[in-house]
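User: tokens in, sequence out, please.
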């Protein structure tokens, strides 16, 4: 059987070369040309953003898609905007991240027992990929789940869109999803099982968008509680 780290590295290398969706290719590259003033001196990544974290992680964090001036700029999932700042600070407090901030690829940050990914790998206009674009991108997440599956125990979804995407992807990967489909909620938990007996828990978290964090809908203790629960469900002990 292929080494998970090698298999994931090969997958990531293929992801970043993808040009399958013309609209997304044009948008991600345009964002890198028409930069925000704050990032005028930076070279944008402007390619699909691969997952980030170890290939033998027991927890997967799933969002929706890179932000045009966040991950599309930095080349690292959930990095370069306020949502990512909030997320990585929580991951550091709960023992998953080696440092409290993620600024760019190669900044020394290491994730432990947790990997991050998105069902859509390119920044979409208005943060809204089309159904066709989602379908075209879906095989990347399928391959990622196949590599993670032997050790994966928990999928944390950021927001209702991530929750829905996770249910569809997990069902494709063989996990039985009940009908009607479970509804998203902050702290919601759903246990799923495959025919081979492997179980997984889907865990919901409000998206750490400025809209949610500035209004107090999502607080630091609420975020930390979700990731603390993920540690518990995954059987991770110690720091």
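Assistant: Sequence out:
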């Amino acid at each position: 059987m292929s080494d998970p780290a090698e298999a994931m590295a090969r997958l990531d290398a293929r992801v970043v070369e993808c040009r399958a969706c013309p609209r997304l290719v044009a948008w991600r590259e345009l964002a890198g040309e028409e930069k925000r003033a704050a990032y005028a001196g930076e070279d944008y990544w402007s390619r699909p953003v691969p997952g980030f974290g170890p290939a033998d992680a027991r927890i997967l964090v799933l969002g929706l898609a890179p932000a045009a001036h966040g991950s599309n700029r930095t080349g690292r999932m959930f990095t370069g905007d306020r949502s990512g700042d909030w997320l990585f600070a929580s991951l550091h407090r709960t023992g998953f991240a080696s440092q409290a901030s993620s600024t760019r690829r190669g900044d020394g940050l290491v994730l432990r027992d947790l990997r991050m990914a998105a069902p859509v790998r390119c920044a979409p206009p208005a943060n809204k990929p089309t159904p066709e674009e989602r379908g075209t991108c879906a095989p990347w997440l399928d391959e990622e789940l196949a590599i993670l599956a032997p050790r994966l125990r928990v999928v944390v979804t950021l927001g209702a869109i991530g929750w829905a995407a996770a249910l569809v992807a997990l069902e494709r990967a063989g996990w039985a999803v009940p009908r009607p489909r479970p509804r998203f909620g902050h702290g919601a938990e759903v246990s799923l099982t495959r025919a081979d007996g492997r179980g997984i828990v889907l865990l919901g978290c409000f998206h750490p968008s400025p809209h949610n964090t500035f209004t107090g809908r999502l607080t630091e203790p609420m975020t930390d509680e979700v990731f603390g629960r993920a540690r518990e469900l995954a059987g991770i002990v110690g720091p």
